[in-house]
UniProtKB/TrEMBL annotation, chains A, B:
The protein, known as: Magnesium transporter MgtE
PANTHER family membership: MAGNESIUM TRANSPORTER MGTE (PTHR43773:SF1)
Pfam families: CBS, MgtE, MgtE_N
NCBIfam families according to UniProt: mgtE
Stretches that traverse the bilayer: 289-311, 317-340, 360-382, 388-414, 426-449
GO cellular component: plasma membrane
């Protein structure tokens, strides 16, 4: 942990690779954690990476591969033969990780890799897991866990556990099943360590076990793990038969992806991208919302065009279009963000009309505050006539209230319809508020100024 | 797990409470998980909640209290005497949770509660933990863990472990220290179960242990836990002496809060609020950005006002102000969101000028695409003269490029300065782009149309 990964380290490593000095290269890496190796890997040339992967112990290579970003891993996998992938990497991986890597291969290569696996039980488990959708409990679970029969006594259980745990890095929970493999409960290691050896497991295990069905959505699994503070959760099929377990580290990844997705949606980015993706990928993720925003802007232009009389008589009204528009946008984003987040973390419990009424009051309060300040500026700074100032302020309050209620209503509506409310934030709200805002502004002007 | 919490259940429960039928009320709750009880608790009256807390077993009451939202818990705590809080609740809590609850009490009540604690060791641990800042490793850690001396053999370790684990719900890791309490490594329960009893721990333990200092920032601890897929991490003081452990469930809460905070900042909400907070709290969180947005709008009005000649000669230019403004806003938010997220998940590695150059190209590409469509509409729909159409398009491309580079630069700049880049998203970018966008638009108009 005391080795610093800097430019000197990387250039020394590159030298070793160029000179094919495998001994020195190995020595440089041996004390590093795979996650640390994976961190600087993308800074090396692809050939250098592949040289190091072949150099490292299989267990370490496999762990490094898993820690890489998907794009980087895919490039590296293309350089490896099915035999190398199977024997050096997949064999060393837990079934859930193995499935993730195999899913990234082409169909043909996938089959070749599976055929090359020597441990037939491991291969069978992998094939089983490949059936499940990536974003379900089945797609997240692993087959590595310890399972005991309720009819065993402590001494048999410990012996069986030792046998089963041989290939496991660590054991946190022991699952108790009956003869039909139906999940009955869990047994804590602590209890096993502290009970006399002839006691039957039946008398020891905890029947209150949380579990999920294999078809459950991964985000729902994440909610259960969070709610009950679990380290892992067993996965069962329709007949309650134990199929696998999901550990909290995989759930952390689900949570992070979900948070990133919501954040990106709020910012008007339609697919998961990173700063280091290609310009083309980034454009595909960003252009859709820019185009929708553009049409919103063109609609606003049409609306203003429809009120050309204003341009003649009260051109000062046009000065305040940006103010109306940006205020409507900001209010709308705030309202929708609070609802989206409330739906996600379960703090929204009341009825819809109550939430809307609250947003109405909130909009009125904020709107009046802002309108008073704007009144001051429009009068003293821009010298706007009283009636025009009044128009601007009434429009501002109205726009804020409407933007706040739209921002509240749309995510609630989407959620009721079973759609992801997060898509309604960001540019969606901004664009619709651009159009509404400008329209309301000029309608109120028309009514109050009577042109 | 099969009991459904619905209106019928709640009204039946309320009936039991009204009739002071403690037996039936207890029966209704006995099979529920504390997290499930906490979920419907806020729907009951405060007196009903307090009645149930006194009715439930202390262990369950304590767990329910911990699962409540902070606001709800505070209200309930006010109804309880220091003696009740100490004996019924704090005694049943792990030290880290106990500290969280005690921190929510008034200074006077805090001392009374601590004085009432009968288990002096527990009280001492709590007082120790109260010294640490809430958002540091010390503020997250608990004192409940199992610690063994490297000089012990397996049989002594198992005996000691049983003694220490008596009050622990579950044991995942065993920490190995020397005579000075310095952290040396970890011992897996699995190894303890599978090694002969006379072996010295010195020969068994794993020296590669990840740890954090007590003063470490909680978000940094979360990063380490995620990077190395840990279930828990030990906390040491400056002299490497083992002080406590942090478990992954507490880190999940840190991650969720962090994600919520970033999301809210992007939506222009300045403090952590929920949909069910009071209108006053929500206003305090929302008004600051609305006011800043308002000043941005007034600045934009001033800028337009400075170009009044345009209003006379090319009033059609004003139609496209909303388009320019919303496009600049959308581009800016997209760019900054990608950088903020990249900084958070570590995908930003290149140099600043490379990122800016990429955004420049991206802005150019997206800008040209959008400009061509706008050109079409402005010509055929609005009948804008060629030169004015050209002005709009050149302005659009320029504004998009500048918005993209500003959106990229500001979060990078804030991050270099050690500030949270997330504050630069949302309204900050929108407001600055409102002003820049309008200014650039009219400047280009002035140059091209020569007024």
């Amino acid at each position: 942990m005391s080795i610093e990964i800097n430019k000197d380290f990387l250039s020394a490593l590159a030298d070793c690779i160029r000179e094919q000095n495998s001994k020195s290269a190995h020595e440089m890496l041996v004390d590093l954690h795979p996650a640390d190796i994976a961190e600087f890997f993308p800074q090396l040339e692809l050939e250098e990476q592949s040289y190091l992967i072949s150099l490292l112990d299989n267990e370490v290579s496999a762990a490094v591969m898993l820690e890489l970003e998907e794009d980087d891993r895919k490039k590296l996998l293309r350089l490896l033969s099915p035999k190398e992938i199977a024997e050096d990497l997949i064999t060393e991986m837990d079934t859930d990780d193995a499935v993730d890597v195999i899913s990234e291969l082409s169909e043909a290569k996938k089959d070749e890799v599976i055929a090359q696996l020597e441990d037939k039980e491991h291969a069978q488990d992998i094939v089983d897991l490949l059936r499940y959708d990536e974003d379900t409990a089945g797609g997240l679970m692993r087959k590595e866990f310890v399972k005991v029969n309720k009819n065993w006594n402590v001494i048999t259980a410990v012996r069986e556990m030792r046998r089963q745990a041989e290939d496991l890095e660590e054991v946190y929970s022991i699952y108790v099943v009956n003869d039909d493999n139906e999940l009955l409960g869990t047994l804590s290691l602590k209890k096993l360590l502290t009970t006399s050896s002839s006691t039957k497991l039946e008398e020891l295990y905890n029947k209150n076990v949380h579990y999920v069905k294999a078809g459950a959505n991964d985000e729902d699994v994440a909610k259960i793990i969070q709610k009950y503070d679990l380290m892992e959760i067993p996965v069962v099929d329709e007949l309650m038969r134990l199929q696998g377990i999901i550990t909290v580290d995989d759930i952390i990844d689900v949570m992070r992806e979900e948070a990133e997705e919501d954040y990106q949606l709020a910012a008007g980015i339609t697919r998961n991208v990173d700063a280091d993706d290609s310009i083309w990928t980034l454009t595909k993720a960003r252009l859709p919302w820019l185009l929708i925003g553009m049409f919103g802007g063109l609609c606003a232009a049409s609306i203003i065009n429809g009120f050309t009389v204003v341009l003649e008589k009260y051109k000062v009204l046009l000065l305040f279009v940006p103010l109306i528009q940006s205020t409507a946008g900001n209010v709308g984003i705030q309202s929708s963000a609070i609802i989206v987040q409330g739906l996600a973390n379960g703090t929204i419990k009341g009825e819809v009309w109550k939430l809307l009424w609250k947003e109405f009051l909130l909009g009125l309060l904020n709107g009046l505050g802002i309108a008073i300040i704007v009144l001051f500026f429009s009068h003293f700074w821009f010298g706007t006539p009283y009636l025009v100032s009044a128009t601007i302020c009434v429009a501002l309050v109205t726009v804020i209230i409407i933007a706040a209620t739209i921002g509240t209503f749309i995510p609630l509506f989407l959620s009721k319809r079973g759609l992801d409310p997060a898509v309604s934030t960001g540019p969606f709200i901004t664009t619709s508020n651009d159009i509404f805002g400008v329209f309301i502004y000029f309608m109120i002007a028309k009514m109050l100024l009577g042109f």
